[in-house]
Automatic annotation (TrEMBL):
Keywords: ATP-binding, Hydrolase, Iron, Iron-sulfur, Metal-binding, Nucleotide-binding. Residues 86-95 have a biased composition (Low complexity). It comes from the Bacteria. This is Iron-sulfur cluster carrier protein. Residues 86-105 are annotated as: Disordered. SUPFAM superfamilies: P-loop containing nucleoside triphosphate hydrolases (SSF52540). The keyword Signal does not apply. ATP binds at G117, K118, G119, G120, V121, G122, K123, S124. GO terms for biological process: iron-sulfur cluster assembly.
Amino acid sequence: MANELIATAVRNALASVEIPGGGELAGYGGLSEIIVTTGAVAFAISVAPGMEAAFGPARVAAQAAAEKVAEGRKVMVSLTSDRAQAATGQAKAQGRPGPPPREAVPGVRHIVAVGSGKGGVGKSTVAVNLALGFAAEGLRTGILDADLYGPSIPKLLGLEGKPAVRDDGIFAPHEAYGLKAMSIGSMLTANQAVVWRGPMATSALRQLLRESDWGGLDVLVVDLPPGTGDIQISLVQQVPLLGAVIVSTPQDLALIDAKKAMDMLLRTDVPILGLIENMSYFVAPDTGKRYDIFGHGGAKTAASTFDIPFLGEIPLVMSIRESSDAGRPVVATDPDGAEAQAFRAIVRTILAASPQLKP
Ligand SMILES: Nc1ncnc2c1ncn2[C@@H]1O[C@H](COP(=O)(O)OP(=O)(O)OP(=O)(O)O)[C@@H](O)[C@H]1O
């Protein structure tokens, strides 16, 4: 059935779900839009603060009702109390309970997030190649594409099709170049735009993270969405992170954004593993000559100003772009090349500073 028809079928099915206080879910004002992709159905139920527990059975019933008509798609139902979430920071300041404690992900020893202050700086490219670098050092490694708004991991790793879903509803991640990989992008059709609202996004990510069979990893690399909004904050608050790596280009403006990302991480008590300068300098493809056309070195200076480690620089090279766009990341396909070595040197720096990552 087409996605729109499934959405209608789900809405109809929700008419049989009772909600506290009488009435049915399909007609309830707190029910979000029903998002249907080739692999998933997602919707949120917003409730007044304090009503979460009362709505618990309705959520379970909604999940079951939607599954019956979802034709094998994974159903993700989130129950949220928006105002409670927005008030978390305030609550903390006023001595009320803050966000729920960070909960470890079963089967994953450590999580390293890769973030950036803004889009387009090469964060996903760096995340994939760092993950492959960890794998090359003998770590059992996975990658989670948390960039719901612009998931690019399927393209970067050449993933095809949806991840399999086991009988018990748990995802079996894709495998690519020795990595376990999960991305919401694998569940979207090409160019399908999905408007994730805040609580739905965090809930979808929660499920990708916790309802996947990671099968025992030393490290899971999480490619965060660019920027420093609520999604990023709630994401880094969901799990205990070993730390985060920030990717920036050398330009001043990108560095200002990188600074915002660092501030956000510090506010949420996430250790910063360091800063990477991507597209640091240009290497001419014909002569191999290096040109510092972007004022290279800005990130290094910024790192020392903010007193965080500078992890290294990655040149702007055509081969990185072409191989990324073709789903053949350099660290896997040309491990001895200069580009791959730049990523691997950064991985070794991270491992030297965080030896607990090693098996
Ligand atoms: N070092 C590099 N040299 C050449 N091209 C690069 C390099 N790093 C990234 N790119 C290219 O830049 C583009 C953007 O990269 P990428 O998607 O990784 O960025 P991003 O920061 O994750 O962006 P967004 O968050 O908007 O998805 C891609 O086409 C990628 O191939």
